[in-house]
Specification:
single chain; alpha/beta; 5-stranded parallel beta sheet; two-stranded antiparallel ribbon; 16 helices; 9 strands; 52% helix; elongated; CheY-like_superfamily
Length: 426
């Protein structure tokens, strides 16, 4: 749109300036005039000018000299020279020294003049759009040092505003992600409260599943889906009777096993309507599929089974074997590992078994410290879930602030107990 541009016309003849003003104003441009090169330089220092049109022949400072100075101080403003036929040598000098965009012979043709002005300002408009796009890309990649130094002050100010907004949105996004995972952890904890012997079981499986997924170099999205699915893998058991939940799988009757076998499908159905949990719900449905196709509920084989479900099924069995949930008798870790190895290629994906064995063989290095509530400080990060009687108060990786620290201290006082608080140590 023309009205966004300001044109500076410079000529020592008032009638020439009046003609230019009448012509260009009809096209919607804002016109500023100056009767000498010196006066024009003052205006350039005070006003935002998008295009300069200058006569060649002026006293004291001719057009070539004026435009050469304008080039040095305002190189991004297009420059057009008005010249007569007799000024051909001066015009060449202006082209070389002032690097003018175009020159127009006097007397000019109005349509030609308007076309040349529009062409020059179209280039200016494209350059402005390009600079704005470069600014946005620079902000997203945090490379503000690469911003074009020729951006005008208004564009630079807008750049910093956008950067602050993007940073704020990023921080809000990270907070929402942490809040989402914390909500899932709390919900998983509520599911496990139906059976005291299950407290913390899902969190252990979820942490192990995440490590195995990373060992397999899955994408961050796949790792997240596997972790969430492991936390919520028992959600379908909410509708099962307490008597069935307390019974090991090997002790169930055929009828009870058929009822029990429906819980992955129920868990999948409960979560599938939530867009953020689409991947996790598919993993939950397939957690009891077998690599050899003898699992349930869909008899999937090998790669037909979601990779997260292959990981979750193995990690869940490993922890359940040690807890005695499957056989009714707890196994030693070595016995559970041997059981997993013996089922490689049958119940479990050999590639997942290999990754699992690598993870559990890796020594755990402690990067945490047990600390008392009175010694807590803002910005400390929880190394473990903060639990009270098996109920999760705060999730692992939560950043503490003064308000949370006061609430923790108040809880201990009202509960007459001391919480086990593990803080990350750098």
């Amino acid at each position: 749109m023309c009205e966004e541009f300001t044109v500076l016309c410079v000529d020592d003849e008032a009638n020439i300036l009046a003609s230019l003003r009448r012509l260009l104003r009809r096209s919607g441009y804002q016109i500023i005039t100056a009767e000498s090169g010196a006066a024009a330089l003052v205006i350039l220092g005070q006003e935002k000018i998008d295009l300069i049109i200058s006569d060649m022949r002026m006293p004291e400072m001719n057009g070539a000299e004026f435009l050469s100075i304008a080039l040095n101080y305002w190189p991004n403003i297009p420059r057009i020279l008005l010249t007569g036929y007799a000024d051909i040598h001066s015009t060449i000098d202006a082209i070389n020294k002032a690097r003018i965009s175009r020159y127009i012979s006097k007397p000019w043709d109005d349509q030609e003049m308007l076309g040349i002005v529009e062409e020059a300002l179209t280039v200016k408009r494209l350059e402005r759009d390009k600079n704005q796009l470069n600014s946005l890309i620079g902000e997203q990649n945090k490379k503000l040092q690469e911003l074009n130094q020729s951006l005008e002050a208004q564009v630079k100010a807008r750049t910093y505003e956008l950067e602050a907004a993007i940073s704020e949105l990023h921080a809000m996004h990270e907070k929402l992600k942490k809040g989402f995972v914390t909500s899932v952890r709390v919900f998983a904890n509520l599911i496990e409260m139906r059976a005291n012997n299950l407290s913390g079981h899902a969190r252990v499986i979820a942490d192990l599943s995440r490590k195995v997924a990373r060992q397999l170099s899955l994408t961050e999205a796949e790792i997240q889906d596997t972790f969430i699915a492991a936390l919520l893998h028992s959600i379908g058991k909410i509708g099962l009777p307490d008597s069935l939940l307390a019974k090991p799988f090997v002790e169930m009757t055929l009828q009870e096993r058929n009822i029990y076998a429906n819980y992955p499908g129920k868990g999948h159905a409960a979560l599938m309507a939530l867009e953020q949990l689409q991947g996790a719900s598919a993993i939950i449905r397939s957690q009891h599929e077998r690599y050899d196709g003898l699992g349930y509920p869909d008899k999937l084989v090998a790669a037909e089974i979601p990779i997260g479900a292959r990981i979750l099924g193995l990690c869940s069995d490993y922890e359940s074997l040690q807890a005695g949930f499957l056989t009714g008798k707890p196994m030693l870790q070595s016995e559970a590992i041997k059981n997993i190895e013996s089922s490689s290629g049958k119940r479990y994906d050999p590639r997942v078994v290999e990754a699992f064995l690598s993870v559990i063989a890796r020594p755990e290095y402690s990067h945490e410290q047990l600390i008392r509530s009175k010694d807590l400080k803002p910005q400390m990060v929880l190394a473990r879930d903060l639990l009270a009687s098996g109920v999760m108060l705060l999730a692992k990786d939560h950043v503490l602030d003064e308000r949370l620290i006061r609430q923790i201290c108040a809880f201990e006082k009202s509960d007459h107990s001391a919480l086990e608080i593990y803080i990350q140590v750098k």
